[in-house]
Write a structure and sequence with these properties.
Length: 153
């Protein structure tokens, strides 16, 4: 399927665009069937070959949303503008209104339930158990390496 779209040219931070027609699956910066015009986003200058654009549209070519909107804006074709980009979805919990401040809790109110505290000694015991499980394996591996080295000699 053929599509009329923009291909970026120009210098860094100074873009210019070509209106090209090419296969939809092809790279827009590679081979193009025909260059149909150019667009300068700084001066909003659009130069196009109107007769060639109308020819390709009559042949069944499609347009990207941006090209469609540019051509409608310059009154080269008629129709309605298309949404070229979608707004980003907001993350859960974000709101447009500023967050309300929470009221200050008075000292007379009952405090919330506290989470149980794990004793440091219990943590150390658990770590010791884990290391005890790993140590025999390490010793066995060392012994195996030593026996292999002796066999080689």
């Amino acid at each position: 399927m053929l599509i009329i779209r923009l291909s970026r040219i120009g210098k860094r931070k100074k873009p210019m665009y070509r209106l090209i027609i090419s296969e939809k699956t092809k790279d827009p910066y590679g081979y193009a069937l025909e260059i149909l015009g150019s667009y300068n986003p700084f001066s909003k200058d659009l130069t196009v070959k109107e007769d060639r654009i109308k020819h390709w549209l009559s042949q069944g070519a499609k347009m990207s949303a941006t090209v469609n909107n540019l051509l409608i804006e310059k009154k080269i074709i008629t129709g309605k503008k298309v949404t070229a980009s979608k707004a980003k979805k907001k993350k859960k919990g974000e709101t447009e209104t500023p967050k309300e401040e929470k009221p200050v809790v008075a000292a007379t109110e009952t405090p919330k339930e506290e989470k149980p505290v794990v004793k440091i000694e219990e943590k150390k015991e658990a770590e010791d158990k884990i290391t005890e499980k790993n140590e025999p394996k390490k010793e066995e591996k060392k012994e195996e390496k030593e026996t292999k080295n002796e066999e080689k000699k």
